[in-house]
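Protein modeling request. Please complete all fields; requests missing the sequence field cannot be processed.
Requester role: graduate student
Desired output: 3D structure, token encoding
Chains: 1
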Amino acid sequence: MLISCGSSIKKKDSLTVIPMDLNNVNKIDINSSKCINTTALETKTESLLGNINNIFFKGDTLFIHSSGKLSAFNKKGLFLFNVGTKGRAANEYLTLKSFFIKKGELYLHDWDGRKLLRFNTGSKFIEKHDFKKGGWMPDHIFPFNSTMYVVKNTYSGEQISVPLISVYDENLNIISSSSRMQKNGSSLADLFFPFKNEVLYWEILCDTVYTINRSAAIAPKYFVDFGTHRVPEKINGSDDLYNKIEFVNKEENKDRYATMVSNVREDDRYLYFSFVYGYGIIHFARFDKINGKTAIFRLIDSKTKKNVKFTYMTVQNGDIIVAALPDEESGDNQVLYRIRL
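Delivered output (341 residues):
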């Protein structure tokens, strides 16, 4: 049985299969008691957000990476400040590609500037670290632990072989790289999550969650089994991403297949993730690693009688947090819903 996306990997004993019963989806009303908190993010010219790439919590402050900038909001959703500015100076960035918090400080990855900027949580610039010239260009960077980073490299075309993943030391020197190579230039904005001594990794239009170790070896860890709603293997196992996109976007397939496993989070008991099924409706799931059962959810609004559309999900202290646009025509920022299952 082939269970991976792209370069096919056969099922291994170490792989956990996550059962998905799409005929048993739980509806959660955002007006019910399960939604324990609602935070509307303040909309100002300087705080206007697009699709949210990532949210990190530091005390009572929310740091949100969106629209090529990093914005800070308080726990009530009031805008505080933007971190850094665009430009070519040492303390500025050209293209903010990824962001994370490490040891209580903010790290901004400038893709065009090939550097990593460090700020305190009050937006004061501390220092910059340059990526070495002549090496592969980092596309996305995330801390593996306190002294190492995991990096997804930038695709450089069919004529140049570039490892998919590299592991760097704290001085941004490459320690190791994966044997798996880049196949295309597409990527998700949120694609890494650290858990214990590994980093989880997922890909666009894929139903497999991988793990990366310190040697940059990539191995499948979880397979999300959509059963009869899984994209056919001849499509799913292909390296041709654009063919996959064309297939799932066909009108006759929009309500047939489930895909796009993303926003993966893990703790000692559960694995959480979102996925798309049924004309673009985003669902989220919680897999119980102890009893092997999966609970599937979608959000509804009983006041409008509609599904709640969200594009980002994360987990904090066991609560599901989703960012949604309650009124797509208003031009307002997202609302964060905290769901307690």
